[in-house]
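Morning. Coffee machine broken again, so started the prediction first thing and wrote up yesterday's gels while waiting. Chain of 215 residues, entered below exactly as on the submission form.
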Amino acid sequence: MPTSTDEERESALEAAALAVRRGGLVVLPTDTVYGIAADAFDADAVRDLLAAKGRGRDMPPPVLISSATTADALALALPGYARALMERFWPGPLTLVGKQQPSLQWDLGDTRGTVAIRMPDHPLALELLERTGPLAVTSANVTGQPAATDAEQAEEMLGEHVSVVLDAGASTGGEASTIIDVTGVQGRVLRRGALSLDELNAVLEPLGTSLLDEG
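Came back before lunch.
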């Protein structure tokens, strides 16, 4: 659905939010690549998302949020260095893997007690997240194929599986987010991405710590 005018944008966002509430899948733009999304608290929808991607439960999707304050509702006891990274790089291409709040009633797959969280730096994605709450989101492509960088590519690969495609033109990022494990006393790079190790450590070094690079 086009989002060029205010009327198109509102109509597209309402259609996407309604589809999510009904358990459907939607394609949305982010600051990295286009993503395919489902209600994080709808286990059937998350299973449909993984099936559309051609993934199993061993590759659970990350969760996108519209506000950094939501992180504490999803992750347990985030350490100080994680909060410093959030303050500097959210919204943006940084995914944090923390310990999942034990009270959460959801099933993202075989998470081993963790949850991957990101706040995207894209106004349309943030507007949708404000309407839906946390979304399980992974790159809009069939596993093994390049991630979609525009709505047309996403629709070609996933159109039969999704209810709504939000079209905001070509993605401005293109490079995947950097993923950091923040479950321990020292953070670990799980995947190198749009943010470099030097950029991340420049924030952490004044705190007397740095990241282990396992990316």
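The longest strand covers residues 94-100. Going to sketch it on the whiteboard this afternoon.
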